[in-house]
Amino acid sequence: MITKSLLSDVAPVRWQTTSTRTNIRIAVQKSGRLKDASMALLSDRGIAPNQSDNDRALIVACPGNIEIVFVRHSDIPNYVQSGAADFGIVGENVLYEQDSAVAVQEKLGFGACEVMVAAPDGSPIRQLADLNGTRIATSYPNSLRKKLRDNDIDATIIQIGGAVEAAPALGLADAICDVTQTGSTLKANGLRKIGTLLRSEAVIIAGDNVGPASFIWGAS
């Protein structure tokens, strides 16, 4: 049995990878809702940055020949898929949006959210079928496109980078597709959910360049 407390000592010995690197590299969200929980998870499993590392450093060393790389959330699958990082902690919603070719090693039980469609409170749009002929603003165009196609809905997708909830009030769109955790932002902007695309939580991912690695996360 390899325990969590021994993790940083034994992981490099049993590491399997086709990369020429000899260390283990883990990609984590640089800032945002998953960062603190991700770092707490790694610390609990024996992976913590050396105290001498600069707080602003994007690549930090940990005991046991491990590095943590801090990158944008949406970039984590690319780092892992390319082999630049061996593992990543990322939301399932990002994987679905990017259709990433990575393996999910473990669901982590934090970072729960859902990608949903919402419309203004006074709108005649009450269900997904009512989206025919409408304009939908979103930061998740691929996820939305899949949902519309699966439900045979013809709508115009308007891709924007953020503050999606403001789009209907500003006349840019008739509805939105976005991530929500509690629904409080929807309510504050006069929106109501009319359908769910998917439910998401944080997961550990690995690329094709790594072998079986459950031992890294404290498994036997």
What does this structure look like?
- Mean pLDDT is 86; it is low at 1-17.
- The chain has 6 helices and 11 strands.
- It has 220 residues and is of the alpha/beta class.
- Helix 5 (141-150) links the parallel strand 7 (135-138) and strand 8.
- It has helices at 7-14, 35-44, 76-82, 92-98, 141-150, 184-188, and strands spanning 24-29, 59-62, 66-71, 87-91, 103-107, 113-120, 135-138, 156-159, 175-180, 191-200, 202-206.
- The protein folds into 2 domains: 4-111 and 201-207, Periplasmic binding protein-like II (D-Maltodextrin-Binding Protein, domain 2), CATH 3.40.190; 113-200, Periplasmic binding protein-like II (D-Maltodextrin-Binding Protein, domain 2).
Structural class: alpha/beta
Instruction: Report the principal-axis shape.
Output: elongated
Mean model confidence by pLDDT: 86
User: Helicity level, as a percent range?
Assistant: 10-25%
> Could you tell me the number of beta strands?
11
Task: Tell me the CATH superfamily of the largest domain.
Answer: Periplasmic binding protein-like II
Order of SSEs, N→C?
A: HEHEEHEHEEEHEEHEE
User: What is the CATH class designation of the largest domain?
Assistant: Alpha Beta
Largest sheet composition? 6 strands, mixed
